[in-house]
Hints:
Blueprint: H1 4-10, H2 27-40, E1 43-51, E2 54-65, E3 68-75, E4 81-86, E5 89-94, E6 99-104, E7 126-136, E8 139-148, E9 155-161, E10 167-173, E11 179-190, E12 209-212, E13 216-217, E14 223-225, E15 233-242, E16 245-253, E17 258-265, E18 275-279, E19 282-289, E20 292-298, H3 302-311, E21 312-314
Parallel strand pairs: 6-12
Antiparallel strand pairs: 1-2, 1-11, 2-3, 3-4, 4-5, 5-6, 7-8, 8-9, 9-10, 10-11, 13-15, 14-21, 15-16, 16-17, 17-20, 18-19, 19-20
Amino acid sequence: xxxxxxxxxxxxxxxxxxxxxxHERTEFQWLQRIQQAALTQNYQGVFVYGQGRSMQSSxxxxxxxxxxxxxxxxxxxxxxxxxxRHNDEVHCxxxxxxxxxxxxxxxxxxxPALFRGASQDLFKYYSLKHQGIERVAGLDADVLWxxxxxxxxxxxxxxxxxxxxxLLKAQTLNEKAQxxxxxxxTEIRIGGxxxxxxxxxxYNTEGWKIENTTASYEALTQWSVKSVxxxxxxxxxxxxxxxxxxxxQFVFSDGLAAVSVFIEQxxxxxxxxxxxxxxxxxxxxxxxxxEWSLTVLGEAPPAAIRQFANAVEFKSVSLKK
Length: 321
């Protein structure tokens, strides 16, 4: 059975493509152009994901044709993983446990996409600076620095292809300007025809377990969050089934980073003390609170994650089984 982290690991804003020269773009137009390129360009290549001393490479193929988007991502290092996307439907194949996780998600914030539902309000909390031109995977790229204006969020340095706007490299930096996570194409081809055979799944999944983790959208009246980190707004309340258990989920975002609050009924055998951890830019806090189990995780500093955890109020309404 896949664990919680595996499921979370497999869990868009359509902007306008501007044809102005670089120095005439506004802050928001820069980000719109990058996001639009990730959604509507054809591209294929290999990128690496790094955190600390750990590095992982993946191959991605993306086809956009007649308003339809198809994508295949294969993890090349460590445990095999394959992710297939057709528009909003995502299949995550876990060969080691012979399981297919199915999810419906309109969010496109995974590399080389950049953000979810961002608006001009984003720049109340970040400033954007153009820092010159560098080469990434053989292409000239505009270097942009998204600097946080407070201690509640990370900073981002991003490299966007000058010709198309496609994101070629991204770094997440903490308050000490240390890189805590980075992704970068090592080889990339943008544009042109895509061989559809490259989009076909690698594994024969006949007889595999199918687990539908698609969330149902509903108001989670059992709980409330009294306050949130400035700039993070609630974008979704859903209920999903994970490992056969009903889990409520709040999602908050400032347009770039997202934080999820997961709440489920306490189950015997789960650790009772507070646990904290991190993986790259993702920080996590979990603990028991009364009859509930609370997990908060997201791309935000530890203090912000704790702020969310302390803001959750539980009400005396039973969670649906």
